Here is the input.
Amino acid sequence: MIRSCNLILCCFLIGLTLNASVQQSAPAASAPPPPVGTLAGHPDWPAAKNPGDVDTVDHLVASLYDVVSGPAGQRDWDRFRALFVPDGQIAWINPESAATKDKPARTGDAVFLTPDMFVQQNDTYFKANGFFERSIAKRVEEFGNLVEVWSTKESRDAKDDAHPSRGIDSFQIVHVHGRFWIASLIFDDERPGVTLPAKYLKTPGQ
Here is the structure.
């Protein structure tokens, strides 16, 4: 009887040992991947170069103008990218234009680029050309973590250009992960027949 009890106890201890060994050798369950489209799904996206670039809406917008402005030369594209969500969009309008003696007619269209596509398309231009841009008036609407900025901007090829081109930059901005991000930027410029009205030439309340 004693020998039977000892045998049962021995088998029980062996079973516990084998079970513990199996549990130790089993791989730990991996964390589920982040949902598609989230910021967490882009761990390699550059972080903000300067915390002061993204701590307020005004700083975010000013930082975008600052990073693209300057004499001909290399721009800090990592700083530029970090102002946007990874899947953000930059878009502008190509209006229809009639043919002239210097160029053919153009069909109207809209161009939509990601931040990376914008860099690829414009890096060579900025290296060879000066460009200076600033906001001269803004209208801001906010709800929850969503911000809409309607920015009237001036653009110059030279810093002292007395005749800048003007237009509207429409920013869609979100506040997540403790900072502000540009989700999309759409812009259109003045041209013959399309002139900025007086209400867009001043910031409300100023």
About this structure: The helical segments are 2-25, 57-68, 77-82, 115-128. Strands lie at 84-94, 109-113, 132-143, 146-156, 165-176, 179-189.
